[in-house]
């Protein structure tokens, strides 16, 4: 997911993301076959189901043929292990980008050198040179995408914004995998224009946004198999997912004259990388900016990184008066989806939030509040 697509598009290559592939197969009901295949291959059942199912699909030859595997060490420990397993299946080499923990000049230079070496290796494998003008164009596309994402994120603060968070949770595909290409620019530019038009139309028609809507900040991902609990949540229960952690634009505009350093800094300064305090500060900032009533984190089975962070996130958000609900589930394996438990916990959380809104004119106050685990 985090291998810089800007480099790949500049080289005329196309990135294929194993996690997104697993999510797409989950959407058409094919996760079980991939998971069973991975288990028969000896992959442990207690690791991330994105990676387990992806390995199964690779072994079934369902993904496009690749020229090599590439991964980063950021976000997920499974990245490097999964690509090495895929290497044994495809016979293609694996390149791992070691993303440092600390965000300082030494770390940026260290990673920038790796990105240069990565590009040189791609030149050898493909037999073509990186053209400077193509690289600068990819960087420009990336910056254009960033500007449109920022515009959309600002528009979503308007109470007239109609964009459902259940849809926006799928934006990692154009926002991460396609960034650096005109496809990403086109997607977000069209979305920004449509969103602005619908907001203006709503205001012209004097539509009044409902006052009692429950505003939610969503952390992590969602189930990608065929289940509609998020759609029903927003459609039937007076809830609006006003923003998602995955769509936060944390990086500065890239410098086309220093592309490797810019991309290195982008990777290192991600709120998913480095100290947990970075992610906590981003979450608190988003809760304030989007004036949320509560926070929901989807804790997928096998994701130690996120699940270990939940108690600290809950504690710090509670200090600011934002209750947090942690939903245990799975993004890919529908056998780990328990609709009854989901409904019970969500209903209890929403009832508590509505009670808070009824007893205070402002849902955000700087006192300790009881959280929901």
Give a written overview of the molecule:
This protein is of the alpha/beta class. It has a domain of 122 residues: Rossmann fold. The chain is 53% helix and 9% strand. It is built from 15 helices and six strands. The strands form two sheets. It has a four-stranded parallel beta sheet, sandwiched between helices. Strand 5, helix 14 and strand 6 form a beta-alpha-beta unit. The two termini are 29 Å apart.
How do the strands line up in the largest sheet? 4-3-5-6
* Alpha carbon gap, first and last residue: 29 Å
Low-confidence stretches: 365-373
Structural category is alpha/beta
Summarize this, please?
The chain is 53% helix and 9% strand.
Question: Any key phrases for this structure?
Answer:
373 residues; Rossmann fold; two-stranded parallel sheet
Could you outline the blueprint of secondary structure elements for this entry?
Elements: H1 5-10, H2 18-27, H3 31-40, H4 49-59, E1 69-72, H5 78-90, E2 94-97, H6 105-126, H7 132-155, H8 165-168, H9 172-177, H10 182-204, E3 214-219, H11 229-236, E4 239-244, H12 259-268, H13 276-289, E5 294-300, H14 304-319, E6 324-329, H15 339-359
Parallel strand pairs: 1-2, 3-4, 3-5, 5-6
Helix pairs in contact: 2-4, 3-4, 4-5, 6-12, 7-10, 13-14
């Amino acid at each position: 997911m985090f291998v810089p697509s800007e480099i790949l598009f500049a080289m005329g290559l196309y990135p294929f993301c194993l996690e997104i592939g697993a999510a797409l197969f989950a959407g058409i009901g094919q996760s079980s076959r991939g998971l069973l295949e991975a288990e028969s291959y000896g992959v442990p059942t207690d690791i991330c189901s994105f990676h387990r199912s992806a390995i199964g699909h690779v072994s079934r030859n369902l993904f496009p043929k690749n020229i090599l595997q590439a991964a980063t060490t950021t976000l997920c420990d499974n990245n490097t292990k999964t690509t090495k397993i895929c290497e044994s299946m495809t016979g293609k080499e694996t390149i791992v980008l070691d993303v440092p923990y600390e965000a300082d000049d030494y770390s940026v230079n260290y990673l920038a050198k790796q990105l240069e070496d990565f590009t040189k290796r791609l030149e050898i494998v493909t037999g073509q040179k990186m053209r400077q003008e193509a690289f600068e164009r990819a960087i420009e596309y990336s910056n254009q995408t960033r500007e449109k994402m920022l515009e959309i994120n600002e528009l979503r603060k308007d109470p007239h914004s109609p964009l459902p968070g259940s849809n926006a949770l799928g934006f990692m595909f154009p926002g991460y995998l396609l960034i650096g290409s005109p496809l990403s620019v086109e997607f977000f530019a069209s979305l920004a224009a449509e969103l602005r038009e619908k907001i203006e139309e709503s205001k012209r028609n004097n539509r009044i946004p409902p006052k009692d809507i429950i505003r939610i900040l969503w952390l992590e991902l969602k189930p990608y198999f065929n289940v509609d609990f998020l759609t029903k949540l927003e459609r039937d229960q007076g809830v609006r997912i006003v923003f998602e952690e995955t769509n936060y634009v944390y990086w500065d505009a890239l410098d086309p004259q220093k592309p490797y350093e810019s991309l290195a800094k982008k990777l290192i300064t991600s709120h998913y990388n480095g100290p947990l305090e970075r992610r906590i500060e981003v979450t608190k900032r988003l809760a304030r900016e989007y004036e949320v009533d509560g926070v929901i984190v989807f804790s997928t089975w096998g994701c130690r990184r996120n699940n270990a962070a939940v108690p600290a996130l809950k504690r710090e958000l509670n200090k600011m008066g934002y209750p947090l609900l942690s939903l245990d589930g799975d993004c890919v394996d529908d056998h780990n989806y328990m609709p009854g438990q989901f409904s019970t916990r969500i209903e209890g959380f929403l009832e508590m939030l509505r009670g808070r809104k009824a007893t205070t004119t402002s849902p955000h106050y700087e006192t300790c509040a009881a959280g929901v685990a």
